[in-house]
Amino acid sequence: xxxxxxxxxxxxxxxxxxxxxxxxxxxxxxxxxxxxxxxxxxxxxxxxxxxxxxxxxxxxxxxxxxxxxxxxxxxxxxxxxxxxxxxxxxxxxxxxxxxxxxxxxxxxxxxxxxxxxxxxxxxxxxxxxxxxxxxxxxxxxxxxxxxxxxxxxxxxxxxxxxxxxxxxxxxxxxxxxx
Length: 178
Prior knowledge:
By secondary structure, this protein is mainly α. Helices cover 72% and strands 0% of the residues.
């Protein structure tokens, strides 16, 4: 498996564009989905392009110390953070969803609620929620993506769960649920 990845990267870095197209096709849904979950819609397309540009430029320096998928997640996360830092979106931007990026199994209302809730989290908490629950990465993989000790990932996940629990309770109270 690692030999296949090494060979693919070698061919890409030798200038074989069709090999980068294959890599793009293999990871485009992952990149777009992760970016969609980390950033509001108005920034999505530009940040996805920026992420692939950084992947392209960074491939010659990929050392294989982690899985390629983990390395790509790390780039996506860093591009999202940089993009939000450069151009913080208005809060309503998280609610302005277009049908094209919705996940098919999630009703639009639920997806918008989730995105609105995530907008209230700081990036550290949003990272672990998205990577653990939505991208279904293990604690170890999240540790590698975020370059953090496992204990730090666990504590951030715990704090994010507590915040999510509190937000859900607040929503239930505001809707008059018993």
